[in-house]
Amino acid sequence: MAVDVLLVGSGGREHALAWKLKRSPRLGKLYIAPGNGGTRLVGENVAIGVMDFDKLLRFAEEKRIGLTVCSMDDPLAGGIVDYFKRRGLRIWGPTKAAAQIESSKAFAKNLMHEMKIPTAEFQVFTDYERALLYVRQKGAPIVVKASALALGKGVYVCQTLAEAESALKELMVDKILKDAGSEVVIEEYLEGPEVSMHALSDGLNFLMFPPSQDHKRALDGDKGKNTGGMGTITPVPWLSAEASVLVEQEIVRPTLGALAARGTPFTGLLYPGLKVTVGGPRVLEFNARFGDPEAEVYMRLLKTDLLDLLEACVDGALGNQKLEWYAGHAACIMLASGGYPEAYERGFPISGVEDAEKTENVVVFHAGTVFEQGRLLTAGGRVLGVSATGITLKAALEHAYEAIKSISFQGMQYRRDIGAEVLKYYSAVRI
């Protein structure tokens, strides 16, 4: 029987999920609220904001939606899942209590401390003067984080004491992230590469995705401010099978177990962002939904029907599912507005997307776009995610960067070194 789906969101992640859902033979109608300039090509956009729970619920009831899917941090933190469940509607995603694993870094760090889950040494502060004293005692390098949600912009990796002091002032005094910086987590700096792990969960059972690697800094060479992510690759060859097992057994399993023991079982997608140190994987942060742009590469390689997986999570039947993947590699390069992740302008015409998708193995996912009066315009910091697959990572990256040559909008910026370190790894291995 066909299932009508309502997908809540408007970013590149949502376009990727919609693109994959569209390929399910069981999908009926697909609605995206509010969607963007690209999601209109795979479903029907609905002009309802992600935090307007009343309107979303009424729409789901009126359209007899079989499954609502939410993979956005704000509505999950706001309790959209609880809201729908109280009315007996089927919805995929964690409850408000379970989503605290992302919406409060202080909650997550305290849970990790309690469960002895490997992470960086930390302290939590709500008082600016005490936080300032602590960083002066600890010295640099050190990491300062806004505890609450901040669209990926609340993490400051400080190489000097002056940078740490400036970060605290921006967050706690200047309030550049508003209330998100009222509580901060200060933690030790960890050496090592970052890796993203994803685990689908039905509250009891879980399935692990292969590792991926996001590139958070705005500029080439991992310079500039942190962003929501400027590009991703999967799989990650340098993460050993043994390390992946450690992540599953020492991080994912105890975290899900701890949430279940609290009476708040986690249903949805648990995404620990990790540093792989000489002492093993350490958790930098938890997310309660698919990463963005990680979703853009996972959806390109996922062979299993996504609708089957999401419904199995909701029905507590994930133990009957298995993940199958297409062979090869996937890469996604984010095209961002000039000035991102700081101030940027919107409303610039975008050209060349259709030409870009004529490149071999390329799909362009829309993130910050809008289609108005017959024109595709920029409408966000991260505008487009140019994704590509290939038998090798080198081939996938070549396809993506070749496609980018066709796309243009005023101020367009992107990193030209996505996956470069992994390419060096492959080169070294061959030698």
From TrEMBL:
It catalyses: 5-phospho-beta-D-ribosylamine + glycine + ATP = N(1)-(5-phospho-beta-D-ribosyl)glycinamide + ADP + phosphate + H(+). GO terms for molecular function: ATP binding; metal ion binding; phosphoribosylamine-glycine ligase activity. One of its GO terms (biological process) is purine nucleobase biosynthetic process. It is an enzyme of class 6 (ligase). The keyword Transmembrane helix does not apply. It comes from the Bacteria. Pfam families: GARS_A (PF01071), GARS_C (PF02843), GARS_N (PF02844). Keywords: ATP-binding, Ligase, Nucleotide-binding, Purine biosynthesis. Residues 109-315 form the ATP-grasp domain. Its EC number is 6.3.4.13. Its cofactor is Mg(2+); Mn(2+). The keyword ATP-binding applies. Pathway: Purine metabolism; IMP biosynthesis via de novo pathway; N(1)-(5-phospho-D-ribosyl)glycinamide from 5-phospho-alpha-D-ribose 1-diphosphate: step 2/2. InterPro entries: ATP-grasp, ATP_grasp_subdomain_1, PreATP-grasp_dom_sf, PRibGlycinamid_synth_ATP-grasp, PRibGlycinamide_synth, PRibGlycinamide_synth_C-dom, PRibGlycinamide_synth_C_sf, PRibGlycinamide_synth_CS. PANTHER family: PHOSPHORIBOSYLAMINE--GLYCINE LIGASE (PTHR43472), PHOSPHORIBOSYLAMINE--GLYCINE LIGASE, CHLOROPLASTIC (PTHR43472:SF1). Belongs to the GARS family. This is Phosphoribosylamine--glycine ligase. It comes from Candidatus Kaiserbacteria bacterium RIFCSPHIGHO2_01_FULL_55_17. The lineage of its organism: Bacteria, Candidatus Kaiseribacteriota. The gene is purD.
